[in-house]
Amino acid sequence: MPEETIRPLEEVEIEAWADLYRSASAEIGRDCGIAVQRVGSGHLFLASRIDMLALNRVIGFGAEGDLHPEQLEAVVRTYRDAGSPRFFFQLNPLTPRAEIVRQLENVGLKPYNRWVKLARGVEEPVAARTDLLVKEIDQAKADLFGHLLVSAFEWPEIMGRWFATTVGRSGWRHYVAYEAEKPAAIAAMFVRGDYAWFDMAGTLSQYRGRGAQGALLETRIKDARAMGCRYIAVETAEDTPDRPAPSYRNTLRSGFRVAYLRQNYMLAF
After folding, report:
1. Is the CA virtual torsion 25, 27, 32, 35 positive or negative?
2. Could you tell me what percent of the chain has a pLDDT over 90?
3. Helices assigned H by DSSP within the chain
4. Mean pLDDT score of the chain, rounded to an integer?
5. Which of 36, 84, 166, 250 is 20 to 30 A from 123, comparing alpha carbons?
6. Which domains does the chain have, with CATH numbers?
7. Could you give the angle at which helices 212-226 and 246-253 cross, rounded to 10 degrees?
8. Judging by beta carbons within 10 Å of its beta carbon (0-12, 13-18, 19+), is residue 183 exposed, middle or buried?
9. Using CA atoms, how far apart are residues 122 and 259, in angstroms rounded to an integer?
10. How far apart are CA 33 and CA 159, in angstroms?
11. Cα–Cα distance measured from residue 10 to residue 37, given in angstroms and rounded to the nearest whole number
């Protein structure tokens, strides 16, 4: 895939995550050990008190050819000194692969898994088959959004309070799928310029298999088009025989296509 396509797909994800980290209150930041730093052309995201790789990772580093051993060593020190149990380094597709792999291995990082970057335009989405009704929510229901998110994934309660801080924030839109008046699933969208980024999608266990995420994807695609976006990006785990990824299959059914695979390297302390 050409650089002019890869770069904005990476950048909208980075901007969304940076804004999520900036949205945390001082109390939440302290309780989660939150920090975000620029590292050359990339970003270092840290939540040292939550052992979750998605919250402790480096994205975008090396895209401008800034592959310096001292920077990688500083990255390792930052996570180690903060008390993070482990972290990801997500290999930017624009980085010279052989060179960066050698440097990652020199500081102790090892291949772990891959994430899939999927993308599509804003043409009419495939209609979802569900009896659930999707509604956009505002800041008045931020607590509901956070509660549903941690309930769907069995995450720590503090993460719900943190992610809920994005509700009503500029650039973000949030949605809940309901069965009558009962909330069943949630999802969010972040928009910058021509690009929309989808994430924070989860469904309560008793409502899975009823098309909630398909409906949430359909609604967000239509809203992204109405906002003037031209492209939509999303990431998910790689779908493999030993580790199926339902979210990957949902996005394919909604017209997304694989843009590229991103190799993850991990270091545990």
Report:
1. positive
2. 81
3. 3-23, 26-32, 69-82, 97-106, 142-153, 157-163, 212-226, 246-253
4. 94
5. 166
6. 3-115 (no CATH), 121-260 (3.40.630.30)
7. 50
8. buried
9. 15
10. 12
11. 17
Better pLDDT: 103 or 56: 56
Residue 92, pLDDT score = 82
Token pair 């052989």 in the structure block, residue = 98
Give the type of residue at 225: R
d(CA 37, CA 75): 10
- Angle subtended at Cα 181 by Cα 252 and Cα 140, rounded to the nearest 5 degrees: 85
User: 134 with 175: CB under 8 angstroms?
Assistant: yes
Nearest to 118 by CA among 214, 230, 237: 237
Does pTM top 0.90 for this prediction? Answer: yes
Which tokens sit at 35? 């920090």
Residue 268 host element (H or E): strand 257-268
pLDDT, position 87: 98
Looking at residue 86, its amino acid is R
Rounded to 10 degrees, the C-alpha dihedral 265/68/73/44 comes to -60
Report d(CA 104, CA 98) in Å as an integer.
Answer: 10
